[in-house]
Structure formats: structure tokens, C-alpha cells
TrEMBL record:
It comes from Forsythia ovata. The keyword Transmembrane helix does not apply. InterPro entries: Cro/C1-type_HTH, Lambda_DNA-bd_dom_sf, MBF1_N. Belongs to the MBF1 family. CDD domains: HTH_XRE. It holds the Pfam family HTH_3. PANTHER family: ENDOTHELIAL DIFFERENTIATION-RELATED FACTOR 1, ENDOTHELIAL DIFFERENTIATION-RELATED FACTOR 1 MULTIPROTEIN BRIDGING FACTOR 1. This is Multiprotein-bridging factor 1c. Its main location: nucleus.
Amino acid sequence: MPSRNPGAMAQDWEPVVLHKARARAHDLRDPKAVNQALRTGGQVQTIKKFDAGLNKKPGATDLNAKKLDEAAEPAALERVPIEVRQAIQKARISKKMSQAELAKLINERPQLVQEYENGKAVPSQAVLAKMERVLGAKLRGKIVQK
């Protein structure tokens, strides 16, 4: 047990003052704090922000964005040419395969084969190469019709 000093002890008669923590900036912006200040007659600062709530900038940027979009991307994506569509169908039918069977053999979805045959798909060289391998028909480059 610690020993106490038996000597004279001095008393401190200085007052101790406890203060509330100062309000932080984000606490002052709280709607509850603003309403409390208004009720008690405290000082409230209001600032009008320029173009607040309009979610719009001057009209020149809209035109620039449109021009940039048109310059960066073509208007329409390339689709499967009719010669390729017909070649896929002829080769698949000559092998007596369904679209689902062809899709399973090339490890793709049946919808993809359907899109290629309908001309709705954007051609992919990798998919065309898989179809060439399975069907044994030339689908890329110059296609010779028989």
C-alpha cells in the first residue's frame, strides 16, 4: 500500500469551470440546430447559392457534349452481314444441328446463335472462329456462295 505524505497539505481554492464543447460546423448546419437558434433569437447566417437547385449549367455545354458523343462513337454498330447469316444457317442445317446444339458446341448461349442468324448481333471474331471450327464453313473474310 502506498504511503501517504504526513506533511501539511495545501488546499486549492481556484474555481474549476467546465465548458460545453464548441459546436462543430456540421452540427451548426443541422436543421434542428438552426430551428433552435431561430426560436431562441440566436444568430443565423443564410447564403444564397448561385444557380442552386437548377441542376443546369449554361446551354453551351449541352451542344459540346452532343458533338463529343457523335465524334467518339459511330451512330450505328456493325451488324452481321446477310452473307454470313446465310452461311451460318446453311452450314448448320447441312450438319442437321439445331441452334441450341450449335450454341452448346461453341460454349455460347442459344440466343447468341439466334441473334447471329437473324442479323441482330454485333459480330465477334472469336465467336465466328468457334462457329467456323464446329461447322467447317468459312464465315470470315470473302465468303464464296455455292
